[in-house]
Amino acid sequence: VQLVESGGNSVPAGGSLRLSCKTTAYTYSAYCVAWARQAPGKEREGVAQLGHDGSVTYAESVKDRFSILSDKSNMTMYLEMNDLKSEDTAMYFCAAAFAKPCPTVHTVNSEYHYWGQGTQVTVSA
Predict the structure, then answer these.
(1) Residue 63, φ and ψ in degrees, nearest 5
(2) Residue 46 and residue 106 in contact, taking contact as beta carbons nearer than 8 Å
(3) Per-residue pLDDT reduced to its tens digit, 16-65
């Protein structure tokens, strides 16, 4: 399974950014895809999750600001980020799992076993 992120950049607080993840996970029927992030000195945390079963979950810290989107025809998922804050600064990773039902965003670190290399997002105050 391949996952390749892109779209990371430096943006001012209040700005928007869209991350992309090209992935072969969609070739499997029981796909579960997710975004996670890791800030310097902190543990990696799940941000958003979307699954073959229609499940969508978000971390409380990004709910109402971030959206996870899926374009299966282009084998790509997206993370649309609005109203960015300095605390959103992190390396962002996309991840995949194959399960029924899909693990939620809260168990990304333990339940998602395929990971991309990451793309850096920096939000300046």
Answers:
(1) -55, 140
(2) yes
(3) 999 999 999 998 888 999 999 999 999 999 999 999 988 999 999 999 99
